[in-house]
Structure formats: C-alpha cells, structure tokens
Amino acid sequence: MSGSNGLLVDLKNVDKVFKRGAEEIHVLGGLDLEIPEGEFLALMGPSGSGKSTLLNLIGGLDRPSAGSVTVGGQRIDKLSDRKLASWRARHVGLVFQFYNLLPVLNASRNVELPLLLTHLSAKKRREHVDTVMSVVGLSHRMKHYPRQLSGGEQQRVGIARAIVTDPTLLLCDEPTGDLDRKSGDEVLELLQTLNREQDKTIVMVTHDPHAAARASRTVYLDKGQLSLEPVE
Amino acid sequence: MINWLLQTVSVTRFSLQTLPERKGSALSSVFGIAGVVAVLVGVLSIAQGIRLMVQNSADPDNAIVMRSGSDSEMMSGLGGTQAEVITDAPGIARDAEGALASPELFVIINLPKRSTGTDANVPLRGVSRPAFKVRSNLEVVQGRPFEWGLAELVVGAGAAREFAGLDLGSSIEVGGEQWPIVGIFEAGGGIAEGEIWADAAVVQSAYRRGNSYQSVYTKLASSGSFTEFKDSLTADPRLNVKVERAADFYSDQSTVLRGIIVGLGSLIAALMGLGAMFGALNTMYTAVSARTREIATLRALGFKSGPVVVSVLFESLLLALVGGLIGGGLAYLAFDGFRAATINFQSFSQIAFAFDVNATLLKNGIVYALLIGLVGGLFPAIRAARLPVATALRES
Ligand SMILES: Nc1ncnc2c1ncn2[C@@H]1O[C@H](COP(=O)(O)OP(=O)(O)OP(=O)(O)O)[C@@H](O)[C@H]1O
Ligand SMILES: [Mg+2]
Hints:
The structure holds 2 protein chains of 2 kinds. By secondary structure, chain A is α/β, with parallel strands linked by helices.
C-alpha cells in the first residue's frame, strides 16, 4: 500500500486550526511527518498538544486546515466525506482509549461490524471473526457482551475489530490509557506481535513512556510541531 | 446497494436494541402521539357520525318540497290545496292507493333530556298515510304504528334514548293533552330516528293549524324523475315552492355543523400535533445524543451517514406508528358507536347520532401520527449525520 518512496504516511506542512466561536485554536502548525510502512510509532506529548488531532488527520477522520496528508500514495485530504468513509473502512483500523464497543452487541458481533461494509458473505464474515478473535486470544469470549468483559478484554475485542478487515494501518489513541499495568502489557504485547508478524504499521498515542518503549520509534508533539526529544 | 441495505438494517437494529435504555422518553413520545391521534380520530368520528346519519336519512329517490325561500321545514308553510297540487305532480311514484307523497307538519315540543334533565327541543312530525312508504327504511321495532285519526305517537329510537318520558306505554303532553306512545321505530340511524311521529290531521287540529302543512315528502318514480318533478312544480303558477332531493336537503342542513366540528377538531388536533411533534423531536434528539458515541464510532469505522439517518427516522416512525395504533385503538374503543345528541343548527332541534370511527379515519389518524414522527425524527437524524466524526468522538 505504501507510496513509491516506501512511506505509508506522509504529512507535509500540515496546519490544523479549530474555531471555537470567534476564537481560533492553532493546534498544528507546519507539521511534517513521515511514517515508513511497517513502523510502530509512538506519539507522545502533553495533554492538549494535538495528538488525537494528528491521529484523526492520518486516519481520515478529519481534514487539515492546510498542507497535505498522503496515505498509501493517496491524498486523503482531498477526498469527499463519502469517499473518506469507504477509504477508512478499507485501509485503517481504529483502536480507542475507551474501546467504543457497541454495548448491545456481543463480542463477535462487534468485531463483525466493519465486515458489514464489505461484500463478504455471512459465512466468510464468521471465518474472519473467528480468526481475529483467536489472534487476540478471546476465542472463548465470542458471545460475551462488553459489560461482561474486563477492560483488557474489551480492548482486545477493540483490536480484533480494528484488524478484522486486515488494514495496513492501525491507529491507536491511548489504547492502554484506561487499563491496569498487566492488561496494558497484554495489549501492548498484542500490538507488537501484530507489528512484527503481520506487518501492521501502527501509530500509537500514549502518555506512558513504558508503553512507548514497545514502539520502534517515538516522536513528541509540542506547540504544533514534532520533535525527536521530549520538550521540558 | 445490497451492502447499503445491510448497513441500514444493522444500524437500525442496533439502535432499536438500545430502546429499552431510553424507555422513558420513548414512551412519552408514544403516548403523546397516541393522545393526538385519539383526539383527532374521536373528533372526526363525530363529523363522520353526523354524515352517516344524514346519508341514512334519505333514499336517493326521495324529494322534499317546501315553500320557496325557506331554509328549513320550520320556516316553510304550504296550504292544503297546494299540498294536493304537489301530490298530483308527474314524476312521483304511485301504487294502488295513490301517489307516494306525504304532506307533513313539523312542530317542536320540549322534553327533558335523560342525561341532564334539562329541556330540549324535539321535533314532532305529523305525517300522511304514504309517509311509511316514502321512507323505505323506516320500521316500527317495538309496539305498533299509531292509529290514523287517533292522538297516538310513535317515537324514533334515537329520540327515545335521548329524552325522558319517551317510553313505550307512557304518554307525553302534546298541545295540552296526554298522547300515548304506542311504538318505537328505527330508520337506519337516520335523522327521522330523532323525531316523534303522529297522524298529520290529528296534529293539525291539536295545534289549530287548519289544513296547512310545512312540507311534502315524496318518493319519485325513479331517481332520474327528479328534474321532471321539480320542473313541473316550479313552472306551476299555483305554487311558489322549492324542490330538493332529500339527501341534499339533509346534507345542507348539516354542513355548517359538520364544518364547525371538523374545523374545531382539526385545530385541536393540529395544536396537539405540534406538541407531540416537539415531544417526538425531543425524544429523537435525546436518542441521538445518547448514542452520539455509538454513531460516531460506526461512522469512524466507515459506516456512511445514510444508514444512520434512516435508522433514526425509522425509530421515530416506529414510535409514531405504535402511538398511532394505540391512539386509534383507544378512539375506536371509546368512541365508536358512542351515542350523542347535538343541536341541529337550523331547526334548533336535537338530532341523535352515533360517533363513527371507520377505517378511513383510523388510516388518517395513523398517517398523521407518521407525519409527526417523520418531522420529529428528521432534524435529529440530520444532526446525527452532519456531526463531524472527530468532534462526535470527542463529545463522548
Ligand atoms: N473538534 C474540535 N473543536 C474545537 N477544538 C478542538 C477540537 N478537537 C480538538 N480541539 C482542541 O485542540 C487541542 C488539541 O486537542 P487533542 O484532543 O488533539 O489533544 P491531545 O493531545 O489528544 O490531548 P489529550 O492528551 O488530553 O488526549 C485542544 O486544545 C482541544 O481543545
Ligand atoms: Mg487525545
């Protein structure tokens, strides 16, 4: 999926400004970011520095105010809302801090959700769900509802949902932010395995240096720019 | 396309599954709409009941003759000789005993209502012998017909229900004397059921009317004979009359009343409907905001806004439909066949009728409910679809 230069994600001179009434909030300014295919990138920075905003731009959940966002060789900032929705369904897996599972659906139904956007038959969909549920080690929890699962298990269901369509890019916004150390470690272990064994390119926002240590590279966001060192 | 359908069905199913969590607001919207529909159907069933009564009041081949310029029988007057001329006119059906034309007298008497005990006007109609052949649907169901030449009464079933003292075997005062009630008649629910009948000749002498009448009711040879009949009477220099089909006459008499009822009813239903619409609007806004995170998640995963819009609308329509069915059912149970009397604005006499909740009214009620649901769901649905995904994800 990567572009001709081997980059999966390429952000150039990206600005992001939010308008809140008359007030303008400049979150990102002239930001550049290159992520080669197969990388596990940790994104750190103070609260409110724009980490989620940046992740949303990469995942096509939002558009930059200026600059370009190229993912897999495609300028996604130019796509219409409808096209962007289909693009997300095909190319990105999203993992949220609070899992965002649908409470009315059991684990396997939750995982099946993104497959409803494909042309797969019900049988194929079930096969895919079975596969990813065993990848995340939850084959025995298929029929459990989110409220019947621990936080760590819910997050693993969330990851299963993110990888069920086999996207190249996994975007995780503080995936361990709401978990205890042990469950967090399990989730990180899983992400690492997905990166190493299934060649998933992963961008993970985290506040936890311990989590960031699992990544192959860490960048720090501050004052709208990225740097390689944490800013004091 | 199949895919879109699958998405829509899934999203709709998820959202309906969350309904139990939103019981309170969903139920209030259902019952708000049920109330509106019950009132709408109830009020319109009054107008419908009156219309039905009017339709049953006359055969298509019945015509009524009154003095020209009179809007009601009360205002009309015809001399005995004029009545004879009318009876002889061409176009009237005839049998071995002569023309099927009944010169009639119309007087108002006062009787207390059974329900409130207050006095109200009841029409007393003096009829001639052909009267029972002119109105084909009239039938004495209890007792017997009055004897010609005697001061006896038969009472319409509606009037008997409505007014105190109109019981078989008892008697009431007419023109200063006690007249026994010897029979009860039905007339297919028509206007005549709200009347009291007696021999026209006896009523004439009781009220010192000499040989005068107020109207002539006729049965025409056929419905098509009306023009011939009418033309011959209006061209006759001895007469100064107006000729109407009985059905038109009754219908005209009730238009003002029906108009008022339909107008008032629609106004009330519109106002209540507005209230219910805001209720539905509120319910669906609540539903959408309660589900902001879920909707945002679905859309983040790549679900398009179409299925989300449809699911919100579907839920709103479903709640409205349930409300409409409940309201229609309530109206049917409470009002269908409910007996009432109302004032006939032209004769100021009581007319008895039954509310009629029919399929058309129920259908209209449910359509109205769905309309409320549609409008109530539309804006929340659009909001759900328009909310930028990134913003919606932050809100949760
Ligand atoms: N949709 C939006 N509308 C207005 N302001 C926004 C919006 N999204 C983000 N912001 C603002 O942009 C800034 C960056 O927000 P963002 O959520 O990206 O920070 P973050 O680094 O993820 O913070 P945290 O670590 O707390 O999650 C904040 O000041 C936030 O208030
Ligand atoms: Mg954040």
